[in-house]
Amino acid sequence: MSSGTLTIDLNAIVANWRALDAMTACETAAVVKADGYGLGAAEVAGALAWAGARQFFVALAEEGAALRRALGPGPTISVFSGHMAGDTDLIRAHALVPMLNSVEQMARHLETLPEAAFGVQLDTGMNRLGMEPAEWAAVRDLAPGRTPALILSHLACADAPDHPMNARQLQLFAEITAEAGVPRSLAATGGILLGEPYHFDLTRPGIGVYGGLPFIDAHPVVALDLPVIQIRDVVPGETVGYGNTWSAARPSRIATVAAGYADGLIRAIGRGARVFAGDVPCRVVGRVSMDLITVDVTDLPEPPEALSILGRHQSVDTLAEAAGTIGYEILTSLGRRYSRSYPA
Amino acid sequence: MSSGTLTIDLNAIVANWRALDAMTACETAAVVKADGYGLGAAEVAGALAWAGARQFFVALAEEGAALRRALGPGPTISVFSGHMAGDTDLIRAHALVPMLNSVEQMARHLETLPEAAFGVQLDTGMNRLGMEPAEWAAVRDLAPGRTPALILSHLACADAPDHPMNARQLQLFAEITAEAGVPRSLAATGGILLGEPYHFDLTRPGIGVYGGLPFIDAHPVVALDLPVIQIRDVVPGETVGYGNTWSAARPSRIATVAAGYADGLIRAIGRGARVFAGDVPCRVVGRVSMDLITVDVTDLPEPPEALSILGRHQSVDTLAEAAGTIGYEILTSLGRRYSRSYPA
Fold first, then answer.
1. How far apart are CA A158 and CA A166, in angstroms?
2. Are A315 and A273 in contact (CB under 8 A)?
3. Which chain B residues are within 8 Å of A123, Cβ to Cβ?
4. Residue A318 class from Cβ within 10 Å (0-12 exposed, 13-18 middle, 19+ buried)?
5. What does pLDDT average to in each consecutive run of 10 residues of chain B (344 residues)?
6. How many alpha carbons lie under 13 Å from residue B190 in its C-beta half-sphere?
């Protein structure tokens, strides 16, 4: 086996979803866009459906179609990007629920699929997806008798509980939906943690289910173990890797490890990330290559056969910090060459 | 169609390979590791085999097995990571040629597959993969009558033609292989451009075939067009995206575009990358989300239906520069949600 092993703990995913569900009195959906945050939408959604989740969210109609094939006809599958040009056949064939983001999308949906369910996404200040309050006021009576299955909005700063943006979005959302008389949703993981006023009728956790911040009590979900190809000794002054950017300050032992930026170990981690041999941390040295990293294993008593980059000692958020990014990007970058394992 | 369209020009790939081949008097292989630098190993290698390439390089035995299924029995498929524990069955079943990197790998290969071809990778200073000269001297006579099919090494600084490392590695490689009497290879794309002394018997271009630097005369290979989900007007002071990091300085029009870091638009590009509406550049504003970017389209005469992020106006290297990385990482990060097109 020359590729790494990515172990995905579906029991931890279920436990995280249940813990987030237990924080609210309302229904809890699950967000499985971007192939389940890189961990396998079919596997993740299958486990959560078994655990009781009844609603799933994806980003694109194409993702919804694939998820419908995996889950069967029962669960509700909603699409954040709404009803885009070209989506009609997928929405109909797979009974997807588009979250309509604009007057244009609403007109398209009501015209092409007049009987099909839909939701409405409102923009409450993030200025990314969703109808402006004025648009919503203008179109809500376009289709008398056709009420949305859900009205949702999304918080821009939920990871920062003290940010005044949270209360502003909450107030606006509550105001413009007060009379809607349909289920409402505002909170993803961060919003759940902000407390009861943010919960409404449905929450939509994503990152917390996958073990990431801001859900600090999450069970870790992923472990990534990388095989060592070879080990060499270098003398002080010898350089390692592209561009000779690292040179040995002492007699050093370097392990060459079979994973690189093509596997999601993004180049920026070369600036000092750690991997682990058992409990012992070792530094990545030199540049991250496409298929390889090099690690200083001088202080280990034995040459390692494999090194852990995600797991008990290092979360996706810790690795992300070394790379100047967020755990979400570490997850969605996890590569296709790993051997993926979902232990029961 | 709610996902982006990634168009991969196999004719440009063939033209690039032929141009690199024409720069040398020796044979030219092609490197198709990491799924053909993210563009599809089967498609790329198929086109290059048709164009005359006879040798292909991959990183892992698993990649070699998949490539063998795509190419059939004819071409030589070599594996940079050599013969790792667990690789024996794949190497035998798919007639792969491991580039042995250590005494341990050599012993494993000669013991488990005594009749199977192999190459030897030598380290000439990069300290990443390959036997040290002393190891090679010690083991080269381990198997009398079993000569390597190829001896190769890899340059650490070939992208910097004036770096003294290049001449040092060349000299060492020439010295330790002078008496070997087997085909030798030192140059990837950068090495080809360094000139004839670096060419030996076989070159192994990778990035240049895919249209990237340092091959400045490469034909562009990829175009990436992203659909616009919706467009909104914001007033001065309004913020866009997560964390409210961007705020409008003038009345602005913002397009929300269906691709994000889960599609390989790495978060770091948010610091100022451009996308194009026809010939007109527009700035990415706000943070890159998992599935979305937001773009300032205020200066366009018409609201765009799609925006180009890679193509005629912007190469992988230009986009990489905006993200503080290299074109290689942009290529290998290209996501799985795009609709991929290989026009004839």
1. 6
2. no
3. 232
4. middle
5. 91 98 98 98 98 98 98 98 96 98 95 96 97 89 83 97 97 94 97 98 98 94 97 97 96 98 93 92 96 97 96 95 94 96 95
6. 17
Let me know if B210 is a catalytic residue. Answer: no
* Cβ within 8 Å, pair A268-B82: no
Does A194 have pLDDT greater than 90? yes
Angle in degrees, 0-180, between the axes of helices A41-51 and A61-71, rounded to the nearest 10:
50
Query: Does a cis peptide bond (omega within 30 degrees of 0) precede residue A75?
Result: no
Interface of A with B in 183-212 (CB under 8 A): none
Contacts of A80 in chain B (CB under 8 A): 291
Half-sphere exposure of A250 (CA within 13 A, CB side): 5
In this prediction, residue B1 carries a pLDDT of 60
CA A162 from chain center: how many Å? 23
Report the CATH superfamily, name and number, of domain B222-341.
Lyase, Ornithine Decarboxylase; Chain A, domain 1 (2.40.37.10)
- DSSP-assigned beta bridge partners for residue B224: B6, B310
A1 pLDDT band (50/70/90 cuts)? low
Q: Which fold has domain A10-203?
A: TIM Barrel (3.20.20)
Shortest CB distance from B256 goes to which of A3, A33, A129? Answer: A129
Q: Taking a C-beta distance cutoff of 8 angstroms, is the pair B182, B119 a contact?
A: no
Does B289 lie at the interface with A, CB-CB under 8 angstroms?
yes
* Separation of alpha carbons A240 and A223, rounded Å: 27
Q: State yes or no: is B242 an active-site residue.
A: yes
Distance CA A100, CA A106 (A): 6
Cα separation, A5 vs A334, in Å, equals: 11
In the set B33, B37, B261, B328, the catalytic residue is B33
Predicted TM-score (pTM) of the model is 0.95
Question: Of B3, B230, B268, which is closest to A129 when you measure between CB atoms?
Answer: B230
Residue A120 to residue A31: CA distance in whole angstroms: 17
Query: Which residues of A carry out catalysis?
Result: 33, 242
**Interchain CB distance below 8 Å, A3 and B126:** no
d(CA B63, CA B53): 18
Q: Note every long-range contact of A74-79, with CB atoms under 8 Å and residues 24 or more positions apart, other chains counting.
A: A74/A49, A75/A45, A75/A49, A76/A149, A78/A29, A78/A119, A78/A150, A79/B2
Domain ranges of chain A: 10-203, 222-341
pLDDT for position A144? 73
DSSP SS3 for A81: coil
